[in-house]
Amino acid sequence: MTGFARYPLPAGPAALLLPLLLAACGRQAAGQAAPGAAPELPPIHVEQTEELRRGGAVVDEKNYRLAWTHCQAIPNVPKKPLDEEDARRLGRTYYQLWYAGQHLAVRSDHWTFKPDSLCRFSPVHQSDLAIVGTEGAQLIDLTAHTRHFDPNIRLQPRPAVAPADDDEALRAKVQAQLQQQGYGAAVAQPQGDAAEAGQPCRRFRDATSEACVWSGGDSWGFGASAGIGVASWAGYALALRMEPAGRGDGQYLTTQRMTVGQPFDRHVFDLPSGLADK
Description:
4 helices, nine-stranded mixed sheet, 15 strands, disordered N terminus, mainly beta
């Protein structure tokens, strides 16, 4: 299993376990370092937000605010709005990623809402966690307090990334083949360098999407290249921004904070207590 993908955390929304995790599937057995293996990864911490937008607005938040506006015009009906803090979270999934050495943890928190009656609203919060090592992944539903172990999702030693020119040559070859088949627009084209959350990244664009992929981790095995489509990264890659082309309707991923080399509490890799097997 390689490349960028969305992986559904247990009982939660589709979440980014990020290519950091998924690209590791099916690689060398644990403990077998590849020739030219990258040096051990320093601590990396990333905070990101994903949201579905239509017409420039986050869909769930807009739907709630329209519903509440209509409710205010209805007399003699019990009413209970959401707290404004909860309303501003609606339709958003917040991710935190911690990565160090051969350990990865990804937490997602997603908010939506439900009507308890005609005009009484409550927030719905789903929280999930994945803790991944060389032996497999603990996939945890923090809301339901359950866990599931998957040995097929694991981290493996990763060689240092070859220079970007090698990727350019491969991409050109693939694009030429797709062009002959009438699918040339599907190939993500590099758009130059940029920065997100204080980190360098390389911009890509295809017919439907745009992204900026972290370009500061070559020595630790992270590449900044795209496969077929901007949501199909080759090897280890970390998207710092993803959005529809032309900022149209669709999924948006933004990075609020990313640190490299700053220590964090390693207890984030510990399994929470009180979990039932799923």
